[in-house]
Write a structure and sequence with these properties.
Helix content is 56%, strand content 9%. It contains five helices and two strands, in the order E-H-H-H-H-E-H. 8% of the residues are buried.
């Protein structure tokens, strides 16, 4: 089982990061404004989920699943997952 952050705003992820004690990593990111600017949009694990689905369909993972942490909200995560499955 792999645990992944579901779709969430960067500010929400920062709030959880601060609560979990990764402040030094956030400060290091703040020292690199160009990298920080790339992260200002909503993030989602689509590429990772698609890679897992591809590996499973090729028979490479056996019994394997994912758990999405709904930092961006449960309804938003469910909607994102439904839209992903429809594509």
């Amino acid at each position: 089982m792999a645990g992944l952050a579901g779709p969430a705003r960067l500010t929400t992820l920062f709030k959880y990061a601060v609560r979990c004690g990764v402040g030094p990593s956030i400060r290091a990111l703040g020292a690199r404004p160009a990298l920080f600017a790339k992260l200002t949009t909503e993030r989602d694990p689509e590429s990772i989920v698609r890679a897992i689905v591809h590996a499973r369909s090729a028979g490479g993972l056996g019994e394997f699943g994912i758990h999405l942490f709904s930092f961006g909200g449960l309804a938003h995560t469910c909607g994102w997952l439904h839209a992903l499955a429809a594509r």
